[in-house]
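testing teh design pipeline on a random one, pls ignore if ur not involved
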């Protein structure tokens, strides 16, 4: 295999926040301690942190009665907005400080998400599947704003750190069920069962959640269930937690519709289906140990596997070449047998659609260890943290493109009516040149340090740095299937290395318990994801389960009155 070496041009985000707290803030009676590293250890009092950290507890989530985690963050965490282009409450895009965190593969992601110290961005494209997060099991959320290097790669806009419940933090039992009716039809219902307890030394926690809805748009049902369990041990200076998270989801998000179609029927979809099925299992072993009163060790080891199947029916960009065959950019389109493809079938039905079908298996495993030292430095309070981590991803990805027809065309209906069935009907004819089959391997190891030094009762200084080293290997697998076969499959092969040290510096000054200011400078970097490297060569186009562009324009032939008639 030929080796292709790439030099990383880092995308560096520089963050210069300056904030003065409002004089109207009431004096705190308690000190809120917030974890400032992925491995939750000792944490820092909020007033010593030189950057913005919005927080939320499980009580906040329960009181909000939000449709999902992204909806909650949109309503309650500052600077977060969501984009519901997929039109599914479990598939929202999250924007924060100009950066995106999305379930769509291929989008440039700029936020990192951690669950109990595990980075749960998918290894293939850094995408985020919100449907796999056990929302009912969330104990707390920290939103670390800015380019914080401590949270590793791709923390350009910030990082979201999620902790889950245990039998010690949430003993008791609870069952919740609610739903919504549209006439006599149950449009949405959610069932959650929760149980936890402990005997002072051992504790357990279990929750199961089932979500089902028809969706407010046509042909848009979804269902998802998640199971989360935790076995915990607490004794003296030792804590141990074993957590198991499993999710099985079937989501339909039928994307955007042309404005002309929405003028006829707000619930109409242009093409369907757009199905994403996820099956995920994650196992995590974590713990903390105080060596003495001033030194704590913490760490975790984990395994995560997610299988994703996507089936998206879209309009076709292939055109008739004038002789009855399909072409693209002036070149004939050939099927899996090397034959040209007719633009119509034997009955004259137009082949005016495609099915993007993909299967993706992603495995991730790794470990993190961290030490926190609380010894005074030169007679002043000081917190010193250093840690290291390793994370590896193994990916097998195959995407195929099938020639199809819109159902309305196949049945002889008028596709421009609001109630037309624009679902796709496959033909069994595939376009190998548009397909992709690849195996990817990426690994990242890192080391970080952060120190917070209290100069006096008002002033504290924080300095941090992190080193990341990422290695990505791509290997073509087109010989394993006749349905994929780009012109030059060797262009998919590659081996890439990226590394960088990112620093951060900040200070806080508290005038009193109600007023203070902070300022900071920080850098973070982003390494290309395997999917971005795979799609970087125009000579070897890749196929993604989602389109980057909107569907073709809807040709409006009827007014709303005509459609209603």
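output:
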């Amino acid at each position: 295999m030929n080796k292709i070496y790439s030099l990383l041009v880092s995308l560096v985000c520089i963050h210069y926040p300056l904030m003065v707290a409002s004089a109207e803030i009431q004096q705190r009676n308690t000190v809120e301690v917030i974890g400032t590293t992925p491995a939750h250890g000792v944490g820092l009092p909020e007033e010593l942190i030189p950057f913005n950290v919005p927080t939320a507890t499980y009580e906040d989530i329960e009181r909000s009665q939000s449709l999902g985690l992204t909806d909650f963050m949109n309503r309650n965490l500052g600077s977060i907005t969501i984009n519901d282009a997929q039109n599914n409450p479990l598939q929202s895009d999250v924007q924060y400080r100009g950066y995106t965190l999305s379930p769509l593969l291929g989008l440039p992601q700029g936020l990192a998400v951690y669950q109990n110290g595990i980075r749960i961005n998918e290894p293939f494209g850094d995408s985020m599947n919100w449907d796999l997060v056990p929302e009912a099991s969330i104990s707390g959320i920290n939103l670390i704003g800015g380019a914080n290097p401590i949270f590793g790669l791709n923390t350009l806009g910030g990082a979201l750190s999620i902790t889950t419940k245990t039998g010690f933090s949430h003993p008791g039992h609870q069952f919740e069920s609610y739903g919504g009716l549209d006439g006599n039809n149950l449009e949405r219902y959610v069932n959650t069962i929760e149980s936890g307890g402990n005997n002072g030394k051992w504790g357990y926690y279990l929750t199961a959640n089932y979500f089902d809805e028809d969706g407010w748009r046509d042909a848009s049902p979804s269902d998802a269930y998640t199971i989360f369990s935790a076995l915990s041990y607490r004794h003296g200076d030792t804590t141990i937690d074993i957590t198991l998270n499993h999710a099985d989801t079937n989501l339909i998000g039928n994307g955007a519709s042309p404005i002309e179609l929405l003028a006829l029927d707000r619930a109409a979809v242009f093409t369907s289906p757009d199905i994403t099925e996820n099956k995920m299992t994650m196992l995590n072993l974590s713990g903390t140990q105080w060596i003495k009163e001033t030194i704590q060790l913490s760490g975790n080891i984990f395994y995560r596997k997610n299988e994703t199947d996507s089936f998206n029916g879209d309009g076709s960009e292939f055109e008739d070449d004038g002789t009855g065959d399909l072409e693209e950019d002036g070149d004939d389109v050939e099927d899996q047998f090397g034959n040209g493809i007719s633009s119509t079938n034997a009955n004259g039905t137009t082949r005016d659609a495609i099915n993007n079908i993909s299967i993706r298996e992603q495995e991730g495993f790794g470990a993190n260890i961290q030490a926190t030292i609380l010894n005074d430095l030169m007679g002043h309070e000081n917190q010193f943290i250093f840690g290291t981590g390793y994370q590896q991803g193994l990916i097998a990805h195959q995407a195929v493109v099938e020639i199809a027809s819109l159902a309305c065309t196949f049945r002889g209906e008028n596709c421009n009516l609001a109630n037309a069935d624009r679902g796709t009907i496959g033909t069994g004819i595939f376009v190998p040149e548009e397909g992709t089959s690849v195996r990817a391997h990426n690994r990242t190891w890192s080391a970080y340090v952060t120190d917070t030094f209290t100069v006096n009762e008002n002033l504290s200084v924080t300095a941090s740095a992190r080193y990341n080293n990422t290695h990505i290997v791509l290997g073509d697998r087109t010989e394993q299937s006749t349905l994929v076969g780009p012109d030059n499959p060797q262009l998919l092969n590659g081996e890439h290395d990226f590394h960088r040290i990112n620093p951060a510096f900040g200070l806080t000054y508290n005038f009193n318990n109600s007023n203070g200011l902070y300022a900071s400078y920080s850098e973070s970097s982003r390494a290309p994801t395997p999917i971005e490297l795979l799609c970087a060569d125009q000579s070897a186009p890749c196929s993604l389960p989602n389109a980057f562009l909107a569907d073709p324009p809807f040709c409006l032939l009827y007014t709303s009155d005509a459609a209603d008639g």
